[in-house]
Amino acid sequence: MILHTPGGLALAAEQIARALVDHKGKVTVFVPHYAMSGGTLIALAANEIVMDANAVLGPVDPQIGGLPAASILKAVELKKPLQVSDEVLILADMAAKARIEVAAFVFETLQKRMPKDKATSLAAALTEGSVMHDFPLTVDILRKTGLSISTDMPRNVYELMDLYPQAGTNRSSVLYVPVRRGPATRGDNPTS
Fold first, then answer.
1. For the whole model, what pTM was predicted?
2. Which end of the chain has fewer beta carbons closer than 10 Å to its terminal beta carbon, N or C?
3. pLDDT digits (tens, 9 = 90+) for 118-137
4. What gap in Å lies between CA 136 and CA 113, rounded to an integer?
């Protein structure tokens, strides 16, 4: 499976991840550029993750109404419950539940691929919200967590990506712009 996504609805990502975990054959995901948030959830369900040396995954900390769950909880902690609105208290309740649910899902997914203690610590690190939601988790960072990541990306994955250039959107994310490289032609070199 080729993953190239800024993320999206956690429910959809979890459904896909569960299907991959339950799949009887070996599942390999290829990340040529990025697979953030929900894409990371899906990648974690694979038996093998292959990433470009410069590709990234991202944290899977829950977002509530476009706000980081960890930040909602931090705001209530700093201001104290009696100093915030009922709406913020409701958001904080939802945020606390979401953090538990996502961490449990990530742990459940990881424990099938790594020892329990490593699965526990990685699930916490990915879901606690200690970094921004778009923080790039590089190959080196991911390997330090105990994940086995290959950088042996097949050339045909890049060739397939070249066939589907992304249109610009109003959604903030990484924009993949394929660059076709061919033989230099006259005028390409400023010294010619």
1. 0.81
2. C
3. 999 999 999 998 899 999 99
4. 22
